[in-house]
Design brief:
The protein is an alpha/beta fold. It is built from four helices and five strands. Helix 1 packs parallel to helix 2.
Length: about 120
């Protein structure tokens, strides 16, 4: 099963990105599952490396890393990165600059598309 997660919201404030990453992480640990996460809009900043959050608070950089370590792919909208001044060097491990064309391919190839 190939599942695509499209995340739109900022990493903190709303819990939509957090909840999407919770599910993506859980699914990525399941046998026979392929997980892809595409960060678009304000969610692009979820892939910023070096996040420091208060102790006991969730860290979306760590959550993205968990998806990646379990074989998931993480694409970050290049246009959204540019609009937020986020460079390739500032991306968290396992995250990479991506495009709408790649999101289109991922969507066509997905068995399920979940949008948060």
């Amino acid at each position: 099963m190939n599942t695509l997660f499209i995340l739109n919201d900022a990493p903190y404030g709303s819990e939509r990105t957090y909840n999407g990453l919770r599910l993506a992480g859980s699914l990525s640990r399941s046998e026979g599952q392929t997980v892809r996460v595409f960060l678009i809009g304000d969610a692009a900043s979820a892939a910023h490396k070096g996040q420091k959050v208060p102790q006991g608070f969730y860290n979306v950089e760590v959550m993205l890393g968990n998806v990646h370590r379990h074989g998931g792919e993480i694409g970050v909208c290049a246009t959204c990165m540019d609009a937020r001044g986020l460079t390739d060097d500032e991306l968290a491990e396992g995250s990479r600059r991506s495009t709408l064309a790649e999101l289109t391919e991922w969507t066509i190839g997905a068995d399920k598309v979940l949008v948060f």
